[in-house]
Design a protein that fits this description.
Layout (H helix, E strand, L loop, with lengths): L15 H13 L4 H8 L3 H13 L3 E6 L7 E6 L13 H38 L4 H17 L1 E5 L8 E5 L5 H4 L4 H14 L1 E7 L8 E7 L6
Antiparallel strand pairs: 1-2, 3-4, 4-6, 5-6
Helix pairs in contact: 2-3, 4-7
């Protein structure tokens, strides 16, 4: 379980425990009272009190999970309305701006704007990645993305599985843009490839309906003949 790097990224008006519940459900997808109480290190009664308030605001819903032997278990998950409380690094204004550019300059205009943004991000990210070995670069990239509200973490597969890295992003601050302008996703992958000098396969995308964005990262190695 990853711990949120910056709980301030969640909308104002929530207490710290409620922010944590929202983050944990974002990552865990579904969780019962016992699981939430354990990860938050508080009583089940305290968790239930916060969940009831979040349910009243339409951000959390409870369902019966019949996947276990015996009586159905009650679990909690985020509602579609909860998307509004997570950070958006680009506001609705940015979406309207890209729509305007597309109408007047076509897709090429949109791609140009996004590539210029990519250049700016490359410079910012590179300052923190330079001088690190490949494994640490991937970890630092995940840390940067987490700080920006993507709720990100990186994992490394075993050598038996290929030794690839996986970058997981449980929240997409630009989802409203990406749903209308797919170029936002493709330029993002290009940015990671340039920063890491790696081959990257995007296997999951929130903008395409997946619960996460998942990048499989393979280091490019020099071949000698």
């Amino acid at each position: 379980m990853i711990i949120p790097a910056n709980l301030e990224n969640v909308s104002d008006g929530f207490s710290e425990p409620k922010k944590k519940i929202l983050y944990y459900l974002k990552v865990m997808q579904q969780a019962g009272l016992e699981e939430l109480a354990k990860v938050m290190k508080v009583s089940r009664m305290a968790v239930h009190k916060h969940l009831v308030l979040l349910q009243n605001r339409g951000l959390v819903e409870s369902i019966e999970n019949r996947g276990h032997v015996g009586r159905p278990r009650m679990v909690y998950q985020l509602t579609s309305q909860s998307k509004t409380v997570f950070p958006k690094s680009y506001s609705a204004i940015a979406t309207h701006a890209l729509d305007f550019i597309e109408r007047n300059m076509g897709k090429e205009g949109v791609e140009k704007v996004l590539h210029e943004r990519q250049t700016d991000l490359f410079d910012q990210y590179y300052k923190r990645l330079k001088g690190l070995d490949f494994d640490k670069q991937v970890k630092e990239l995940a840390r940067i993305r987490d700080e920006e509200g993507y709720i990100a973490e990186s994992k490394k597969e075993s050598k038996r599985s290929g030794g690839k890295h996986v970058l997981l992003e449980y929240n997409c601050p630009i989802i409203h843009i990406a749903e209308k302008h797919w170029e936002a996703c493709s330029t993002e992958t290009e940015l990671f490839e340039k920063l890491l000098g790696a081959d990257i396969e995007t296997t999951h995308r929130a903008a395409k309906g997946d619960s996460i964005c998942k990048f499989v990262i393979k280091e490019k190695r020099e071949e000698y003949f």
